[in-house]
Write a structure and sequence with these properties.
CATH class of the largest domain: Mainly Alpha
Shape: elongated
Helix content: 55-70%
Number of helices: 28
Strand order of the largest sheet: 5-6-4-3-7-8
Strand content: 5-15%
Largest sheet: 6 strands, mixed
CATH topology of the largest domain: Amino acid/polyamine transporter I
Number of domains: 2
């Protein structure tokens, strides 16, 4: 038997007690650069192919913002005939929002805060959590709130994106206005219906279609800039500041619409693990940012020439003969943006499950060998229900724009806060300097959040309600899980004392290997105790199997399995998976063999202990306990979740009072 030590800097994701502090600097030095992670893939596909893929997946959401962002910002001014002060001021605010929030914060800073090549708020949380060395409830609440706000964003993005594109039908043929809602609903239902079958083949079209979309955005904008070259003055931030000063009565409301231009920017960081830092940056500076800026400038130049076009400033960019083609291309782009959000929701849910924030849900892999191609039915259908309700309730993209922003700005504020903690805790930057570094971005994002908060009763309550519900569920599950673990630990028998006690036991030993799953390798699983009590037998090889979730996205082959003989017939086996992986015990058994475990699959049995929680608290605690009990009934069968051989599983149940 071989005992592979746990690599430095790796911890279980669901600790019961505080762990010893880790040297985060050494941990970060031991990690590889995200671009190195993708170096082999880059050699196979080429940097150009990865960059093209990033255009489709990473920037699909932000690429649809020109359809409605400038229009809504102008509408918020209340000006009937917007002049240079309104147009140039709004353009300046749009451009500098893209520069400060997306370019500086995400492209230059957060893309460097990777967790073994993975990004996103949960990865950032795990880095801060590792640096802290012990559990911190405030940091945990920041992560829960960020993940919950993402749920609100995931519901609104498909609704507003597809609806805003299909509304272009009214310009092609006004008689089609009655079909905008039915067509939108049909597209969304079809989009969610195909998720179960996977999107790997369709995803190959995402990059080329989005590249064509961004080239079209830039081309349409460039054609109109020549009509009003005065819009180039909007690069001067003084126009933006002047607008805020001169239009102080409406400036705060306009900022809420301005922020629509940056929605989707957060996917830059979340999709770091799929493409690597360099392709994402090349796509942004080489195509996406220039195309977005040119399109906004083109819309502004056109409105300066003809203010009557402000109501449909995007679709009015195209000649009448090309308008149908633009509507079709815009619809395709919004479907791609929606797909990226849906895929992100699946990935976020899997990460939350692995980190212990959600109950086990059935995860289906839709592409062989691609861990990122997954489908979670519960998430898919809940999202579809929410999206359809939003479309039918609000009825237009303008109405939905009021609801779109609180969740995104809130999530960005939380990411920036965690970024400051990362600088302080992980990179050892003094606290004062960390605050000073993020203060400008945090000030701007907080202002945007406050502006969007004014729209709470106009629709902003939707993402807030979704976030509160999701956050409450995540907190109830995490709290209940810890309570169950603490209760079990009080009544548990330590593994070492149990092994010593069993040396002189008269229990019958039978041939074969028995795997007893336990969440804590230091205590005896209840299923083993029940088996001895009722059946009076032990297998000649009794393996105490623990599946650990690491605070890194993916486990390496060396980290996957640890085998440790405990004495007599007892062996401890620990299988480790990253929080972005789906734990597949059957497949990981090959690593257990490599670590020294010898067993015959046909003579092996897996024993599971099923714990049924019973709520016993009072007041609010009772409500949270009952919520946890209800969630536990929704949890997927552990046999399916851990991919155990179904015909070799025995389950033993027990009741646990919390």
């Amino acid at each position: 038997m071989i005992n592979d030590p746990i690599p430095r800097g790796v911890q279980p994701a669901l600790p019961l007690f505080d762990e010893e502090a880790l040297d985060i600097a050494d941990y970060l030095k031991s990690e590889v650069d995200p671009d190195d992670i993708h170096s082999d893939q880059s050699h196979r596909q080429g940097l150009a192919a990865l960059t093209l893929g990033a255009v489709g997946v990473v920037y699909g959401d932000i690429g649809t913002s020109p359809i409605y962002a400038f229009r809504e910002a102008l509408r918020a001014t209340g000006a009937r005939d917007p002049g240079p002060a309104e147009v140039l001021g709004i353009l300046s605010l749009l451009i500098w929002t893209l520069i400060l929030i997306v370019t500086v914060k995400y492209v230059f800073f957060l893309l460097r805060a990777d967790n073994r090549g993975e990004g996103g708020i949960l990865s950032l949380y795990t880095l801060v959590r590792l640096a802290a060395g012990k559990r911190s409830v405030p940091i945990l609440l920041l992560a829960l709130a960020g993940a919950a706000l993402f749920a609100g964003d995931a519901a609104i993005t498909p609704a507003i994106s597809v609806l805003s594109a299909v509304e272009g039908l009214e310009l092609v043929l006004p008689a089609l206005s009655d079909y905008v809602i039915p067509v939108t609903l049909g597209i969304l239902i079809a989009l969610f219906a195909v998720q179960r079958h996977g999107t790997a083949s369709v995803a190959r079209l995402f990059g080329p279609v989005c590249a064509l979309w961004f080239l079209t955005l830039g081309g349409l904008g460039l054609a109109h800039i020549a009509e009003g070259p005065a819009v180039l003055a909007s690069f001067n931030p003084a126009w933006g500041v002047g607008f805020l000063v001169d239009h102080s009565a409406v400036a705060f409301v306009v900022l809420g619409a301005i922020f629509l231009a940056a929605t989707g920017g957060e996917t830059l960081y979340a999709d770091l693990g799929h493409f690597g830092r360099r392709p994402i940056r090349l796509a942004w500076f080489g195509l996406v940012l220039p195309a977005l800026v040119l399109n906004y400038l083109g819309q502004g130049a056109m409105v300066l020439v003809d203010p009557d076009l402000a109501e449909e400033s995007f679709f009015a960019l195209a000649p009448e003969a090309l308008l149908p083609a633009l509507v079709v291309l815009a619809t395709a782009a919004t479907v791609i943006a929606s797909q990226a959000v849906i895929t992100g929701a699946f990935s976020m849910a899997r990460g939350a499950i692995q980190l212990g924030f959600l109950p086990r849900l059935r995860i289906l892999h839709t592409a062989e060998g691609q861990s990122g191609q997954i489908y979670i039915g519960a998430v898919n259908w809940l999202l579809l229900w929410g999206v359809l309700w939003l479309v039918m309730s609000f009825g237009s993209s303008s109405a939905l724009a009021s609801a779109y922003g609180i969740s995104v700005t809130g999530s960005m504020v939380l990411e920036t806060t965690l970024g400051a903690l990362f600088l302080w805790r992980a990179l050892k930057v003094p606290l004062a300097l960390s605050i000073l570094f993020v203060a400008p971005v945090l000030l701007v994002e907080t202002t945007f959040f406050a502006s969007n908060a004014l729209k709470f009763f106009d629709g902003g309550y939707v993402p807030v309600t979704v976030a509160v519900v999701v956050g409450l569920l995540m907190w109830a599950w995490w709290r209940g899980t810890q309570a169950v673990k603490a209760r079990v630990a009080k009544l548990a028998i330590s593994t070492d004392s149990f092994v010593r006690m069993m040396r002189g036991s008269s229990v019958n030993v039978i041939p074969g290997t028995a795997f007893f799953l336990t969440g804590d390798p230091g205590i005896v699983p209840s299923a083993l105790l029940h088996n001895i009590k009722h059946n009076r037998v032990l297998h000649e090889q009794t393996v105490l199997l623990t599946v650990e979730t690491l605070r890194v996205p993916y486990a390496t082959a060396e980290e996957r399995a640890t085998v440790e003989p405990l004495g007599g017939c007892f062996i401890r086996l620990i299988l480790r998976f990253g929080f972005m992986e789906t734990p597949n015990v059957s497949r990981a058994m090959a690593h257990a063999r490599s670590a020294g475990l010898k067993f015959d699959v046909m003579a092996s049995t897996f024993f599971l202990g099923r714990r049924r929680a019973v709520a016993t608290g009072k007041g609010l605690e009772l409500v949270m306990d009952r919520l946890y009990v209800a969630l536990s009934r929704m949890a997927a069968d552990p046999t399916d979740f851990y991919h155990l051989p179904r015909d070799r599983v025995v389950e033993l149940g027990e009741r646990v009072a919390i």
